Amino acid sequence: MKTFNNTIIIKSLGVALLSTVLLVSSCKKSFLDVDPQGQQPALEFWKTQDDATKAVNAIYANLRTWENVAFPALVIESVGADEADKGSTPNDATFWLLYDTYTVTSTEGSLQSFWTGQYQNINLCNQVLDNIPTITMDETLKARYIAEAKFVRAYAYFRLVRAYGDVPLRLSVPKDASEYNIPRAPKEQVWAQIEQDLTDAAAVLPVTYGATDLGRATKGAALGLHAKVALYQKKWSDVVTLSNQVIGSGYNLFPDFERLFRTNNENSSESVFEIQAELVPGNNDASNSQYSQVQGVAGVTGGGWGFNVPSAALAAAFEPNDPRRDGTIIFRGETTPSGDVIPTAGPNPMYNQKSYVPFSQYVSGFNEGSQQNIRVLRFADILLMNAEAANELGDASQALTSLNRVRARARGTNPLTVLPPVTTTDQASLRAAIYKERQVELAMESDRYFDVIRQGRGTEVFGPKGWKANKNEVWPVPQTEIDLSGGLLTQNTGY
Questions:
Q1: What CA–CA distance (Å, rounded) separates 240 from 230?
Q2: Least confident stretch, 44-48, 122-126, 491-495
Q3: pTM of the entire structure?
Q4: In 261-349, which residue ranges form alpha helices assigned H by DSSP?
Q5: Sign of the CA dihedral 274, 79, 356, 447?
Q6: Which of 262, 243, 267, 245 is nearest to 380 (CA)?
Q7: CA separation, residue 61 to residues 11, 111, 152, 434 (Å)
């Protein structure tokens, strides 16, 4: 009998909830097969409420894997934008440049890794959705677990559909060989399923959790992600309705933009959804996030590998004296607000400050910054979605209210001459101001690339880097997937 023991962690206010999920596949039994002591055989799983809890915790744990937050995610969701460059040294991981110049082909490995990571998420969710309904357990908790799985499945499909367009739509675990090989579903069908999952989730998920469950999907997270899904489809009325519900749910902008991204301010009033991570002493397997490590300052103890660095174009995009510039970018030679001195002679002139963990928090033997949560959805994003949709519907007053709320937080206690409120009511001018605000507020958070494409500005913004319309709106489908399907899966146009 083969067994795999996956230790996972949910982080909330410094409390680590550890559980172990045993994923067991069986082979023909013989007298040489001795069941490992203390491990559950597969036939005993999916029986109890504790099994359900372990399975749902495994969903959250998978969100911080290499495929979801490190190289594969960053090349698919970040470096193609004008805000980020490869970083590191010129000859290190040169495949990143294929994404930065839109010359990647279907055989490049990160395409497969990102695809695999999302379908791993979906498979874990589908296991929960297929099996938990039959467990005798607290019915309120059961309903919540099902809603949490639907939220994460929607999030994984959101990442897939904006990266690849049409994708296979799996809504249950395959029961036999005939269900493994399925074609790509039209993106409209995928979007519709995402919306249904989020509608179902929002109807059940709580507004808040107690301290031991912080980091789980909430009603606000489901509504907020649904607003973003509607934004990508230009369903402006839905965006306003959904984002207004989130705005009225008790979220608020954290007062200090730079401090918002530090580990001691995780799960703050601005957090709508974060991928939870933690450094657990003595447990390297649970301390597995490499999100901060791969982007950290290169060449210093406690830094990192120096990939996915801010570009000169991003540094120039901020208005004069915008505090968010220094809250987003670590510059070579500076001293950070946490007191870290950045060497003047390093391989890169800039690094991502939002993924930065102060060097003093480094623990030898662990990934640098493994305790850093990944901010997936912030209240500032909700306000900017609300502003964009309201403007498209001709409601300049609402658009300005939401937009200027974000600018006011960025401005802080500085005089009004720094980041003055936007006052224009001209729709085109206000649209441009909202686009600019999204660029600088959400910089280095894996939104810029897809924002520009959904706004129809790919050629304008990314054309100088080689981006081509009617091709680069999506990445190529991994060739391995096409080969394994026997040609049932088709390739995107132009690849």
A1: 9
A2: 44-48
A3: 0.92
A4: 291-295, 312-317, 323-328
A5: negative
A6: 243
A7: 10, 21, 11, 34
